[in-house]
Structure formats: structure tokens, C-alpha cells
Amino acid sequence: MTEQDFSVPLEAPKYYRPDPSYREQSWIGDYEEAYQRFIADPDGFWRERAAEIEWFEPFDRVMEWDFPYARWFLNGKLNITHNCLDRHVQNGRANKVALFWRGEQGEEKAYTYSQLLRNVSAFANALKRMGVKKGDRVCIYMPVVPEQVIAMLACARIGAVHSVVFGGFGVNALNQRIRDSGSKVVITSDVSMRRGKEIQLKPIVEEAVVNAPSVEAIIVHRRGTPMVELHSEIELDFYELLERESHSCEPEVMDAEDPLFLLYTSGTTGSPKGIIHACGGYAVGTQYTTKYVLDVKEDDVYWCTADPGWITGHSYVVYGPLLNGATVFFTETTPDFPDHGIWWKLIRDYGVSIFYTAPTAIRMFMRVGEQWSDRYDLSSLRVLASVGEPLNPEAFEWFYHHIGRDRCPIVDTWWQTETGMHMITTMVGEPMRPGFAGKPIPGVVADVVDMDGRPVEAGNGGFLAIKRPWPSMLRTVYNDDDRYRKYWTTLDNLYTATDLAVKGHDGNIMVIGRADDLIIVAGHNIGTAEVESALVSHEATAEAAVIGVPDPVKGNQIKAFVILKDGYTGSDRLKSDLRYHVRMTVGPIAMPSEIEFVEALPKTRSGKIVRRVLRAKELGMDPGDTSTLED
Ligand code: 6R9
Predict the structure, then answer these.
(1) Structural domain that includes position 598
(2) What pLDDT score does 461 carry?
(3) Which of 78, 238, 280, 288 would disulfide-bridge 221, Cβ 3.0–4.6 Å?
């Protein structure tokens, strides 16, 4: 890739500036100052962050770097659940609500910190009694219910390594993950709820364990009506187990480098990778970023819409907020059921003050129109945040005006399953530039580099790379250390997962998307996200995906799939409008040669468009494994 392949739009950058009170009252304060303090003494910076959690035994060194392996907080001993639960119970938060949960049918549950601790301890005792020991893998395959969080924390309490599999995956995906991890126990629910219907999970588990000899028991959280029967010898009831146990369980003393969990990434090619995170570094990284990036305060009601089955749910529904003693709201409710106003109603009803969601959800709300959110008083909101995909400027503006009501900062957080915590963002209180995620957070050294790992000039594009280890980085890929090493060897000793990005003249970074989402047209590299963003900025477009289709002259040409907003109908006239619009926004080289209007786009369950499937369909090829896609 040459440095001229990307360019920042030529117009003067547009910034949104939060009220100065945000910066004054934020945990981070002045970003530049905080960043310089980190650069002056990186180990000292992380030592201070590590002092914000409790250690059973202090560590004797902050970090040891033996390329490409880093060890953090050496010989420190801790348990993350002591920090998520006991510590708060002992320090005046015993009766503070830790979890507010709301089901699809309107049912509600709340757990105070002391109630959550008692449940986690009892379930941890049950796992122990079944013979689950430190280091054993436990697969958790559940819907978004409090029992899922209890199961995760109970594993962490006794040092078992949880492997959460998103409850929307099918038999093959689940089987592959159970076998790769060698899970000893599978914890599931009989059903999950989706738009008023019960989806049976238990039959999926039954099939997925058939050729998984490591599985000794299946624990079923029974919630459907009528109550499902437990058949085989190895099936046990979640609450029967929990209720006969004592409510106190000493946390296992974990070394900082012991594995905390593994989580499989939704790779676009190859088998899924089991990303391993370590106890100490992950606790420090998620505690730090939840506090300083999302600016969580004592009285906040915090809602992150991710499923705990993804890394965002691990770090920013479960561990990060609980490490900070926050009140977490979460729900099984999809954003369109019973209608498109439900999320805004929940924000109003629970007084949510920090709201963290994904661009795909925001674009869906844009598509149905702001009449749904306009109905609700959203004045409790203080901070908005986004993750998962580039937040294109149109989605930024919509989120800012219609949800934040021109008042709340938007924190667009770039990070990955592999990074465990936020890496690049615009800190609360700093000027926001739509389309740009922002700058590396204090603690992170990142840059946009060329193929040889050399920083590109401002205004140019390249690979997003991390130059210094960080505490919550992945430690390896389970059973596949070669794939771990590849993260560090692709770009000459820097970490990359080949996201493409552009470095702005103001130091802000615009993330374009994964390099495999790149189309080369007549020798020019064109990021699919750039073209899609242009299409979405047209008034008629709700969502768009583009792919490369082979062309004898140009190598590739661009084909676009477009979902129109309600009220627009596809016509040839509109097609040429859209092509002209892309030509004017990105340039003639990015102009799609073909546009097809569609009703839906293939997406992963976490909302990422899977262009590979569109491409395969277009070219009449086998789309490969589609078991991980949305219906
Ligand atoms: C946290 C998460 C990681 C990939 C990442 C990038 C994309 C995530 C983004 C973003 C632009 C953001 N991504 N956040 N792109 N702006 N704010 O999503 O983890 O599921 O592992 O995906 O998602 O391409 O490399 P994960």
C-alpha cells in the first residue's frame, strides 16, 4: 500500500465541543496533560492505575516484555470478583443496585451488590462441588439474563476459565467452541426470548455436546413455560444447585498472569480464535477505561447494549462497570420490540445516564426516524458512546442531535476482542470530529503506519498499529500460538489486526475497517467503509454494503447493495443519483458501477456486515460458513 491511497476530506474539519463542565468534572481532566504524564513514565502511569484495585499480594514489577509476550503486574495476586463485589460490599455499596435487568415481557429484576455477591458465591460453590477446578474451562451459552453474569463471575471466583458463546449461535459454532476449549461444563438456559417468541437453546446444546467428550455436565437455567424436563444424567438445574449451597465462598487467589477467560472472535476467515485474557491486566485495563473513558460516576445508571457474549459485554457490561461499583442496567429486549421506542422508554424509565451502543443500532433508528425517540424525555443522559464499527458522520450527527439533544458528548471507542479495553477514542470533554474515532488514550501508544511499520504523514492512510504492550492485551490464541505471533509479525514488531485508518492533521484517527474489507479498483485501494459512508450520507439511504466484483480492465469494480429509508422506492433515477453522490463525496474512482436495492444485509450477530457472503452470492460461489450470521 502506498501512502497516497487514502486522503482526508479536504474541507476544514468540523468539531463539536462539549460544554467545558464536562472536562472540568471528568475523571480524565485535560487529555493532553494526562497523555504526557503517561508518556513521561509509562510504568508509573500503570502502577497508579493498578492501585485503583485491590491486590491480595502486591506485584513486584509492572511489566516485562519478551517479544511478543508481555507479562503484567508480575507475581501480583488478586481475584477480579473480590474487586467487582466484596470490595464494594465492604466499602458502603452493599445495598447499592449492581444490576437492573429487564426482560422482553416487561419483567424486572434487581440485584444489590451484596445480593449479587451471595448469588455468585453460592453458584461458585456449586461448580466446585461438581469438581470444577482452577484452570478448567466452562462454556456459558445463555441469553442476556442475570444468571449469565452470575455464571461468569462464579467461574472467575474459583479460577475456572469461562468461554462465553453468544446465545444466538447455532449447533456448529457452539460445538466447535466447546471442543476447542475442552469445556468441562456447559451452562445454558432452556430458552431465550426474541421479539415475543421463545427460542429453544437446550436442543442446540444437546446436539452440540454429542461429540464433545470433555463435557461432564450441563447446567440448565429453566425459565420457559411449561418448565422443560431434564433428561440425561448429566443435566442439572441452575437454581437447585445454587440454592443448596452456602452464600459465602472464598475467592481463589489468582496470579496476575493466570487466564481469566477465553473468548472466540468472529473471524471472517478460518476457524474462530480463542483469545486468552489474563486476570491482573484485564482487571486493571477495564477498571481504568470504564472509569476514565466512559466517565462512570457514583450516581450514574449505566447501560451498554452489547450482549455479554461479545467482548464489549465482557468488558463493559460485566467486568468494567462492576469493578467501578456502578449501577448497570441491561436487557434482553431488542431495539424494535414491541416497537422502535422501547430503548428510549427504558432510558427514561430507569434514568440511564451513560448509554453505550453500536453504529448498526443507530443507523436502524435513523432509518425508522426520530419520531420514536422524540416522544421520550432523555434528559437523564450525560454521556453517549459507540463501538463495533466506524461511526459514520451521518450516524454521529443523528445520535448527537436526536439522542444527545446537542448536549451529550459521544465517545466513539475503537478497540477489539484482542485488546480487551478501549484503545482509541475521543475522551469526554474533548472536541469531537465526526467520522474520526479520536486519539490513543493515555496508556496506549498507537499510530497509522505503512507496510514497513513506518508512521505515515498526517493526512494519509495505512494500518492501525499499537507500539507498546498494554495490560489487557491478549496473551495468546488458545491452542494456536502461531496465530498469536502473527499479530506482532505482520508489521515488523508492532501489534496490528490490520484495521485500515487515516491519520488526520489534528492527530485524530479515522478507522476505515479491516484490510480484508478493501477493494482495489484500477490500482487504488478503496475502503468499503468509505464508500458505504458516502452512500449512507445520501438522504434516501438507510444502510449500504459494497463489494468488489472482478473487472477485466480495472481489476475490480464496485457493486453496492443499498437499503432505502422508508418512503423511498428504488428507481434508475435514484441509482444514478447515488452514483453521482459517491462520485462527489469520495471521488470518481469509488463510484459503484452497479447498485442493487435490497431489504436486508448479511450481518454477524454483533452487527458487522459480512461482505464475504454478498461477494460469494454475487459471484455464484460457496459463501462458506454462515452459521454465525443473523437470520
Ligand atoms: C470491540 C469490538 C473489532 C473490530 C475492529 C474494527 C471494528 C470496533 C470500532 C471499529 C471503527 C470503532 N471496530 N470499534 N471500527 N470504529 N469505534 O467490536 O471487538 O468484535 O473484536 O471487533 O471492530 O474493525 O478491528 P471485535
Answers:
(1) 522-619
(2) 87
(3) 238
Cis peptide before 251, with omega less than 30 degrees from 0? no
Ligand 1 site, CB within 6 A: 265, 310-312, 387-390, 412-417, 437, 497, 499, 511, 513-514, 606
Residue minimizing CA distance to atom 19 of ligand 1:
416
User: In 3D, which of 150, 309, 300, 268 has the Cα closest to residue 219?
Assistant: 150
Q: Are residues 507 and 532 in the same domain?
A: no
Q: Are residues 480 and 556 in the same domain?
A: no
Could you tell me what percent of the chain has a pLDDT over 70? 96
Cβ–Cβ under 8 Å, residues 535 and 578: yes
Model confidence pLDDT, tens digit, residues 463-515: 999 999 999 999 999 999 999 999 999 888 999 978 889 999 999 999 987 77
Does some domain include residue 35?
A: no
Write out 526-555 in H/E/C secondary structure. EEHHHHHHHHHCCCCEEEEEEEEEEECCCE
Q: How far is the CA of 312 from the centre of ligand 1 (A)?
A: 10
The model carries a pTM of 0.88
Ligand 1 atom closest to Cα of residue 414: 17
Which atom of ligand 1 is nearest the CA belonging to 310? 20
- pLDDT category at 266 given cuts 50, 70, 90 is low
In a domain, 392, yes or no: no
Among candidate residues 516, 542, 564, the one where a domain is terminated:
516
Q: What is the pLDDT of residues 268-305, one digit of tens each?
A: 445 788 999 999 999 999 999 999 999 999 999 999 99
Domain-embedded: residue 286:
no
- Strand, helix or coil for residue 186: strand
The closest-lying atom of ligand 1 relative to the alpha carbon of residue 418 is 21
Q: Whose CA is nearest to atom 11 of ligand 1?
A: 390
